[in-house]
What does this fold into?
Amino acid sequence: MSVKMDIFTKNLELTDRLNDYVVKKVDKLEKFLDEVDECRVDLSHIKTARNANDRHVAQLTLRGKGFILRSEERSDSIFSAIDATVDKMRRQIRRYKGKRGRGRGDGQTIAQAIEPAYPELIEEEEEQPVIVRRKRFALAPMDELEAIEQMKLLGHENFFVFYNANTSEFNVLYKRRDGTYGIIIPEIG
It folds into this structure.
């Protein structure tokens, strides 16, 4: 890919052979999706996996304007885990491109379209919970069906935050216990 590829390892040595293999496999995805801004590959070896066939984990994340695609696979060898992850990503790219037929407005990010309003934080005297991570991400306007598809593509099981293009509101999509979906529409009261 013409995009910079970041490869991270955990409990695994990144040899030249392994690095070349990853680059060769992931570069082939460029012919399917060329608007990728960032590519991240995470490779790990989990010694305490219950099943020996699940010890090597490969995760691939592609980010671009208005989308994040992620795939993860486990195998008994890191090379077969990489192959399976790239195959899964190829299927996700095909599905993403098929669902993306219609346009999404004028192309500006949600951050440009809406001025964010942050409530002031109120300090309490008692023990406060600790926030260990803050995450920022760009939101692209989408309808409810696109949000469900994006939730599935990311592998999110519980919820997905999105900007509803039809209602011009922020929504939280969540999966219910019975397999259906619900939408939370926050209102400032």
User: Anything to note?
Assistant: The beta strands are 5-10, 36-45, 56-64, 67-75, 141-142, 159-164, 169-175, 181-184. The longest strand covers residues 36-45. The chain is about 25% helix and 30% strand. The chain has a mean pLDDT of 82.
